[in-house]
Amino acid sequence: MNGICTLANDKVYDQLVALLNSIEAILGGNTPVCIYPFDDRTERIAGEIAKRPNVFLYDDLESIQRWDEFMLEASPASMNRKYRIYGGHRRFCAFDGPFDKFVYMDADTLLMNSLDTIFQKLDEFDCVVYDFQFGSPDKIYNVSSPKLLKVFSQERLKSEIFCSGFYGSKRGLFSQERRKWLLSKLKESEAEILYPRGDQPVLNYMYMRSGLPICNLAHHLPKSEITGNSVTSKHFEERDHIMYDKGNRLTYLHYIGIHPGITEAVCAGENIEFPYRDLFLHYRYLQEPEKRPVFTTPPRMYSDNPRPSLLKRVLRKLKLTR
Hints:
By secondary structure, this protein is an alpha/beta fold. It is built from twelve helices and 14 strands. Helix 1 (13-27) crosses helix 11.
């Protein structure tokens, strides 16, 4: 069985609903979707998916613990005694099932097109991606490390690096033996070649160090057919709630850089502008348009709403400020 996976908790509830609605609108209501829990905050998610028979929350606690332990050892930051893992790596549970082939999509993405090409390419490759992360290798690897080019050639760095927000892959690629081998290589000395934050560098390393074939459609498609995928691109055109790049239909739209607190605030009625906001709101409220917020105040740009300072967040937790 094939399906779609994502990663979520209640903090990204609004983004998740928009994603699920986009999947249903593009692929139909029978498409199976597995949600990997970022943490234990899943009460709102559970209430939402109870209305969606094709969507389920991953509950294999042994698998979750196995990947928690792997990440604790694999992350370069684990040498810091105060280090604690966050839940992003739990997307790795997809390698344990339930789908033979899967497409993983971050909660802050919207599906815009069929995934047939991705699944077909998985007959030839173990990982199929469609992004331009290879243009910023310094967010995946420590490019100043002299060991980097001893482990991976420059050509591989240019062609195989990918963004972990969207990729197709298969169950069973990372057995216990392979995980142990990868950890042994990291512990020998290769941990220093990883960018020290997040699970994205670890995922790239897992594929590339294992020598698994990776297909990036940004390299494989004809130049005239290639599209972007990020909301940082300002030239996309919307037609019938589908986004196009110079006439070509996007596969997905990634709201990268838009903090979930922003979309959460907008859905609560705050008039905060962000790129392609109307498209997001269309899918967020596709099944309940009567609940779509009506804004009564002048708009503000999301860049004018930075995250609160650490001091303010602490004071807020202590209920000393609002």
